[in-house]
Design goal:
Bound molecules: adenosine-5'-triphosphate
Largest sheet: 7 strands, mixed
Domain UvrD-like helicase ATP-binding: 212-607
Keywords: ATP-binding, Helicase, Hydrolase, Nucleotide-binding
Helix content: 40-55%
Protein name: DNA helicase IV
Number of strands: 26
Pfam family, one: UvrD_C_2
Radius of gyration: 32 Å
Binding site for ATP: 233-240
Length: 771
């Protein structure tokens, strides 16, 4: 037997032993789960028998409530334990499929012999001797696997650094408990395996990279210490992948105090959210809260505005042909994206503490109960030193008092008596019971009962008014915001202030918030009302962070004051370049406290040929290194317009014949995307993707570049790569982003002179065909 065969056999024997332990453990978990299940069923059945129900006296009611609560808590506890066992079982199932993917033999400096450490997606102990059969990839010792080649190595535990030597580093491919392959590897983790993984076809769902995390990516995943972690990474360098691994790592590291609800992931669009939705479950973790900033705003803004999406803004900027509207819009974007405008809002808030707050009358039965003037006077009579949110709290308290006075005042009115007749049977029964309990004097029973009914009517009629007060509906937030542009002049007005004021006022009057106005409005609303901050969010992960305007990011910092943040992005893909000044990824300025920046330069997505073509026209000076995976050179087809449909058909067929499945026709705008769809609709089957598309399908897709952000395809076709389409510096990021979505093939069609960006790539990096 050769030594390779022997190694293979020994490792397979170990896999069999581990599989046996997994099965044993699974059996125990199933037994425990079914016993809990039975007790849950029993508990549900006996729920009311085990609760002492007695509502005779107020004390009894309290006791009954406590008893119900206790019983309900017991039930929840049991159900939660059942849920946990269920998760454990799912993880065991995954382990059984592939118990581990890596091994290192590590000899600590204080020891004589190395110890083999097997690494998988979750830990497993030998129940007999308490030894680790598998170490979780997130355990401190597992970092050795990702960080070092055989030789001297070290890792940090909670209290110390352990030094030693790695004597072996091995990678496994195990499927259904059978060892399919093993390689002893060097510095980076299995170039061979990585080649294989990266060479596969694109998937409609992103996959975890746990088996092949690279050293630089591992730094991101395990980073500790700074409140802000900023990752600048080349297109396809694994930012999103590392971010999701990091989330799983944080959930493991802080499993006692951190749950999925404490982490929020801000993604660039809903399509992307669905694209990454599988990764955490694949790692055995629950999904965290995922939202887009737009979706978040729509839930948070308290006025019925229509909020433009960032894509609508982008489409407008790129397609609006009227010079005048374009220019006032660009002025507005410049002003509202900038931190200077935040200072304007802060100054305006100070001003509002002295005058101009806008209130709304509280009316009752068509009459003013408390006028806006009264509220105004009360508000401005309060101590100057108090903040606006504090004053508003006092106003709300005062209003509730006034409303209660009015309730008492209304009790004897005729309308109240009339309404008592509309009360239902239960109300009457309740009033009767109360009278029976409370009155000794039987002569006044009817009067007493009527009083109770009157109180019920008044309480019910005033309830919605009180609710509105509690929700601060007495403040006209949007109108107060509008005054900023109509009745107030900042000390240092932003550039083009007059034009901006009339543009903003017109939109506010139409209940419309352009995208650049949404973050300023939400910030204003928060400052004004002191809306409780989202304290529950402890970690915030922002992907495609280069696309956030400085004000947008400041607004996020304000809303999530307790959150540690990981910001990931690529300045080369800053498609909203027109609002990139002071972007948190580019400028460290907006960071309030210390931060760490990590740069990823290696690009894993595309073949070497595609990367070598795109790197020369990448928008910034950030370094990009191609991963060494071979493919065909990108193809530039020059032809007449009439042949467009035919060319798309031919190219799609060629790509498919080469085994490529997901082919994206990436356009500059939605408008171009509609145009291409119109041309192709009778000749070939495709899916057109727009902002409302919730998941990424396979096949031929047509989409604008801003919706292709963050995702990847087997092949990309740029349907119009001419100079007319991509020429300005703002177009450069769009063109670069579109090209870098391609994993295996890139085809560009130009019916005119090709875009100057293509010409920036050396001639030998692409093929050019005249058709
Ligand atoms: N360590 C790795 N092992 C295996 N695959 C990897 C690794 N790192 C990245 N990849 C693969 O490279 C591709 C790009 O990764 P990802 O989408 O995370 O990059 P990105 O930096 O977010 O890209 P972009 O900014 O262009 O959207 C994915 O297919 C991902 O699975």
């Amino acid at each position: 037997m050769t030594s390779t065969n022997h190694t293979h056999e020994t490792e397979q024997q170990r896999i069999d032993r581990v599989t046996y332990h997994i099965d044993q453990k699974a059996k125990k978990v199933i037994d425990r789960a079914s016993s809990i299940k039975e007790s849950v069923i029993q508990l549900r059945k006996d729920f009311w028998e085990d609760v002492t129900v007695n509502i005779d006296e107020p004390d009894d009611v309290i006791e009954t409530q406590a008893s119900i609560k206790q019983q309900a808590e017991l039930l929840t506890q049991k159900e939660q334990s059942h849920g946990k066992l269920d998760d454990e079982l799912k993880t065991l199932k995954r382990l059984r499929e592939s118990p581990y993917f890596g091994r290192i033999d590590f000899r600590e400096d204080t020891e004589q012999t190395p110890e083999p450490i097997y690494i998988g997606i979750s830990s497993l102990m030998d129940s007999n001797d308490g030894d680790f059969l598998i170490y979780d990839w997130r355990a401190p010792i597992s970092s050795l696997y990702y960080d070092y080649a055989p030789g001297e190595a070290q890792y940090d535990t909670m209290d110390e650094t352990i030094n030693g030597e790695i004597t072996l580093k091995r990678q496994f491919i195990i499927r259904e408990s059978i060892l399919k392959g093993l390689f002893d590897t060097g510095v980076t983790i299995g170039d061979r395996l990585l080649q294989e993984i990266l060479g596969a076809n694109a998937s409609t769902k992103m996959k975890s990279i746990v088996t092949t995390i690279q050293k630089e990516q591992n730094k991101i995943i395990r980073h500790k210490g700074h409140p802000y972690l900023i990752v600048q990474g080349a297109a396809g360098s694994g930012k999103t992948s590392a971010a999701l691994q990091r989330v799983a790592y944080l959930m493991y590291q802080h499993r006692d105090i951190l749950s999925a609800e404490n982490i929020v992931l801000l993604s660039p669009n809903p399509l992307f959210s669905s694209y990454i939705a599988n990764v955490l479950p694949e790692l055995g973790e629950t999904n965290v809260r995922q939202t887009t900033f737009h979706e978040y705003m729509e839930n948070e803004v308290n006025h019925p505005f229509t909020i433009e999406s960032p894509f609508e803004q982008m489409e407008y900027v790129m397609t609006e042909t009227k010079q005048e509207s374009q220019s006032s819009r660009m002025k507005n974007i410049d002003c509202k994206s900038n931190l200077h405008f935040k200072h304007v809002i802060d100054a305006y808030i100070n001003h509002l503490n002295k005058q101009d707050m806008q209130f709304r009358n509280i009316t009752f039965r068509d009459e003013i109960l408390i006028s806006k003037q009264q509220m105004h006077d009360y508000f401005y009579s309060l101590d100057d030193a108090l903040s606006i949110p504090n004053k508003l709290e006092l106003v709300a308290g005062w209003l509730l008092q006034e409303i209660r006075k009015q309730e008492r005042h209304e009790l004897d009115k005729d309308w109240v008596f009339e309404k008592t007749e509309l009360l239902n049977k239960e109300d009457y029964q309740d009033a009767f019971d109360q009278v029976q309990k409370q009155t000794e004097d039987k002569t006044n029973e009817t009067v007493h009962e009527e009083n109770i009914l009157r109180k019920k009517v008044v309480k019910r009629v005033f309830a919605p008014i009180k609710k509105k007060v509690n929700n601060y509906a007495f403040i006209r937030t949007a109108a107060t915001y509008q005054m900023l542009f109509t009745h107030w002049t900042p000390d240092k007005s932003p550039e083009n202030w007059e034009a901006i004021c009339s543009f903003t006022t017109a939109n506010l009057e139409n209940n419309f918030l352009p995208w650049e106005d949404a973050a300023p409005y939400l910030y204003f609303q928060h400052c004004l009302l002191g809306t409780p901050h989202d304290q529950s969010v402890r970690y915030l992960v922002i992907d495609e962070a280069q696309d956030y305007a400085a004000f947008g990011f400041a607004c996020i910092q304000h809303i999530f004051p307790n959150a540690r943040m990981t910001l990931l992005g690529d300045v080369n893909q800053a498609i909203y370049r027109y609002m990139a000044d002071d972007n948190p990824l580019i400028e460290a300025g907006p960071m309030r406290s210390s931060y760490k920046k990590i740069t990823l330069t290696k690009s894993y997505r595309s073949t070497k040929q595609i990367s070598e073509f795109t790197i020369p026209f990448s928008p910034s000076n950030e370094r990009v290194e191609p991963f060494n995976r071979e493919g065909n050179k990108p193809l530039l087809i020059r032809q007449n317009k009439e042949h467009f449909t035919e060319t798309i058909m031919t190219e799609t067929n060629n790509l498919r014949q080469n085994g490529l499945e997901t082919i994206g026709i990436i356009c500059k705008t939605q408008a171009e995307s509609h145009h291409v769809a119109e041309l192709l609709k009778d000749t070939i089957a495709f899916t057109q993707i727009d902002e409302s598309t919730g998941h990424l399908p396979k096949g031929l897709l047509i989409l604008p570049v801003y919706l292709a952000k963050g995702i990847e395809m087997d092949a990309v076709i740029i349907p119009d790569a001419s100079k007319n389409k991509y020429t300005s510096e703002a177009d450069r990021t769009l063109f670069y982003t579109a090209c870098t979505r391609a994993m295996h093939a890139l085809v560009m069609i130009s019916t005119d002179e090709p875009s100057p960006f293509i010409k920036e790539a050396p001639q030998e990096t692409y093929l050019e065909e005249e058709r």
